[in-house]
Amino acid sequence: MGLLKETTAKINDLDHQVMKQAEERVNHLIKPVGSLGKIEKLLIQLAGITRNPFPEIHNKAVIVMAADHGVYKEGIASNPQEITAIQTKFFPQGATGVCAFAKQTNSKVVTVDIGIDGDVSTTPGVIHRKIKYGTDNMVNGPAMTREEAIRSIEVGIEVAMEQMNQGVNLFATGEMGIGNTTASSAITSVVLGLDPKETTWLGANYPEEKMAHKINVIRKAIQVNQPDPKDGIDILSKVGGLEIGGMAGIMIGCAANRCPVVMDGYISAASALIASLIEPKVKDYIIPSHLSVEIGAIKALEYLGLKPMLDLDLRLGEGSGAVLAFNLVEAAVMMNKEMFTFEEAGF
Ligand SMILES: Cc1cc2ncn([C@H]3O[C@H](COP(=O)(O)O)[C@@H](O)[C@H]3O)c2cc1C
Ligand SMILES: O=C(O)c1cccnc1
């Protein structure tokens, strides 16, 4: 059995008994029942994931999966493709948006070349797991083979497990890949059964007056490839991306090892759609972070039944919003640990 099948088979339900125990305590803390809203729900989810009524966060990491997209050639992005490689070199230097928030939250940034169309192999701090030099152009046929798609998910599982072995027990999904909002819109359109007009927006400042072109490219890619809307690997291979597969793998690897994983914006949501088609229980292990400005993100989150905690008009990616939400995950842990119950307070 391959790593993906093996890992997926290990994914179980949340521990509802421990969740009840955690809920009981949360309801007895010295505050009106329910008054800490989503922070309370978060603590109960953490308890169910970790099987611990007093969940603890030891080490936090955001995994940034970097890759390029063959569909770039269709003119669907406003930035040069080389930015993927250039920007990837800045993650280990601590110089990108997500790095700033990672410093603020005392978390590690792990950068992975899973499919950059360029060479970053001499850059210290980048983990080399390149599957190929960018995907193929999805308007002409599949972005990658089914085997490559499975491999991309397995790279995510492997990287997550390596980090768990080093003591990380809270993850965030991040990415860098010029053109990846196009792949994300294609995935969201296929899974939700929507026309790309309903899922496509600015990405990294694509001009509004050219939006009809981006939408048409996505329509064409779906029409040419006819992905099976029920088969996550088929969708990933035909209209997805290597970094999107990598992030789906992080989610699957976390779920299999009962580890919480915080999801970032639109591209992460596309990964969650793929991961949850492969194994629906993965959703229970995902902590949504923020509501991306991208119109497709709102719909993907609704479809997944995940309610974001933050609404900050973010549209960067890299895992930036997920790392910001690390603060909220730690707040939930602290609420549970620090607050008295009515009994403890001697009421
Ligand atoms: C300098 C720079 C840094 C970024 N960091 C994240 N993205 C974000 O923008 C890209 C997706 O948008 P699109 O589909 O329009 O290309 C991804 O790399 C995403 O992570 C960036 C984009 C740029 C230009
Ligand atoms: O929501 C995101 O993650 C996003 C949106 C635009 C560009 N890059 C990322």
TrEMBL record:
Keywords on record: Cobalamin biosynthesis, Glycosyltransferase, Transferase
Domain of life per record: Bacteria
Pathway of action: Nucleoside biosynthesis; alpha-ribazole biosynthesis; alpha-ribazole from 5,6-dimethylbenzimidazole: step 1/2
MF annotations from Gene Ontology: nicotinate-nucleotide-dimethylbenzimidazole phosphoribosyltransferase activity
GO biological process per UniProt: cobalamin biosynthetic process
Pfam families per UniProt: DBI_PRT
Keyword Nucleotide-binding: no
Catalytic residues in the record: E318 (proton acceptor)
Substrates-to-products reaction catalysed: 5,6-dimethylbenzimidazole + nicotinate beta-D-ribonucleotide = alpha-ribazole 5'-phosphate + nicotinate + H(+)
EC number(s) reported in the record: 2.4.2.21
Xref: InterPro entries: Nict_dMeBzImd_PRibTrfase (IPR003200), Nict_dMeBzImd_PRibTrfase_bact (IPR017846), Nict_dMeBzImd_PRibTrfase_N (IPR023195), Nict_dMeBzImd_PRibTrfase_sf (IPR036087)
Family affiliation: Belongs to the CobT family.
HAMAP family in the record: CobT
Function (record text): Catalyzes the synthesis of alpha-ribazole-5'-phosphate from nicotinate mononucleotide (NAMN) and 5,6-dimethylbenzimidazole (DMB).
Name recorded for this polypeptide: Nicotinate-nucleotide--dimethylbenzimidazole phosphoribosyltransferase
Organism, as annotated: Oikeobacillus pervagus
The encoding gene: cobT
